[in-house]
Amino acid sequence: MRTLKRDHRRYAKRQLTWFNADPEIVWKTPGQLEEMVRLVDRFIGAVNNGEN
Q1: Measured distance CA(37)–CA(43) in Å, rounded
Q2: H or E segment to which residue 48 belongs
Q3: Residues of 28-49 as b/e, b for ≥16 C-beta within 10 angstroms?
Q4: What element of type H or E holds 13?
Q5: Domain residue spans of the chain
Q6: Which residues, given as ranges, of the chain have pLDDT below 70?
Q7: Contact yes or no for 25/19 (Cβ under 8 A)
Q8: Cβ count within 10 A of residue 19
Q9: What pTM was computed for the model?
Q10: C-alpha closest to that of 42 among 30, 31, 26, 29
């Protein structure tokens, strides 16, 4: 079980490192719910309109 926990922690750390290196990742907090909804709506609209 200790090995599983350790490996899970290491994997999560690698994911964070990768995400933090990507300038297109936009981090939001739960308090920014309205802004997140607007971003998702805009994204869905772009996908539905065939935009990249």
Answers
A1: 10
A2: helix 33-48
A3: eeeeeeeeeeeeeeeeeeeeee
A4: helix 2-21
A5: 2-48
A6: 52
A7: yes
A8: 10
A9: 0.53
A10: 26
Give the total residue count for the chain. Answer: 52
Question: What are the φ and ψ backbone dihedral angles of 20, each rounded to 5 degrees?
Answer: -65, -25
**Cβ proximity of 36 and 28 under 8 Å:** yes
Place of tokens 């290196």: 21
Separation CA 4–CA 20 (nearest Å): 24
pLDDT of residue 45: 95
Find the Cα–Cα–Cα–Cα dihedral 41, 44, 52, 23, rounded to 10°. Answer: 50
Do the Cβ atoms of 28 and 35 come closer than 8 Å? yes
Q: What is the pLDDT of residue 52?
A: 64
